Amino acid sequence: MLTAGQIAPTFEKRPVFGLPVSVPHTRYSTVICFVRGLGSPLTREALSLLQDRWAEFDELGHRIVAITDSPASMAQDFVPRYHVLFPVICDPGQELFKLYEVGGHIELAGNLRGLAGSARSAFRALRHGHGPLERNHLKLPAQFCVASDGRLTHARYGRAMTDVPEIDDLLAAC
């Protein structure tokens, strides 16, 4: 697992809409949020939380990038429908997930314990509805902050599918 202080893996990918995204970026720090499939209410909740505070990141010179293993066809509908203002990169081959060591599934029992432990998050997520089911519905989320010099200032791997980004922690870490 990657940890704060390490050099972040580098990449350049084209998001669903917009110009290619390079990590690290020489002018800004980058918040990378690995999310489950776009059909998941938990993913929709995580992206909603980021979207609600996007302006704060932008004002501080940080950019947000979401990475999902959903197919591009799904994201091309999702991004404009939910007015996502930051880049969303589709990684159906999970190349970036592997590069950042994100991915492992936990057993269903572990996810059920996570749901029970954070019922409030789960209920908030359900208000977003459920989209199409995807093959990796038990994928765990993760968040990273990459400084402009390429160093990780924050690395957080989700322990349950209900883990959503702690926005204040991300803002403080960047």
Structure report:
The protein has 174 residues and is of the alpha/beta class. It starts with 10 loop residues before the first strand and ends with a helix. It has helices spanning 41-52, 54-59, 72-81, 95-99, 108-117, 119-126, 167-173, and strands at 11-13, 21-23, 29-34, 62-68, 88-90, 142-146, 152-157. The chain contains 7 helices and 7 strands, in the order βββααβαβαααββα. Mean pLDDT is 85; it is low at 107-111. The strands form 2 sheets. It has a 5-stranded mixed beta sheet with strand order 5-4-3-6-7. The chain has a two-stranded antiparallel ribbon with strand order 1-2. The protein is globular and about 35 Å long. Helix 1 crosses helix 6 (119-126). It has a single domain, classed as Glutaredoxin.
Would you spell out the secondary-structure blueprint of this structure?
Elements: E1 11-13, E2 21-23, E3 29-34, H1 41-52, H2 54-59, E4 62-68, H3 72-81, E5 88-90, H4 95-99, H5 108-117, H6 119-126, E6 142-146, E7 152-157, H7 167-173
Parallel strand pairs: 3-4, 4-5
Antiparallel strand pairs: 1-2, 3-6, 6-7
Helix pairs in contact: 1-6
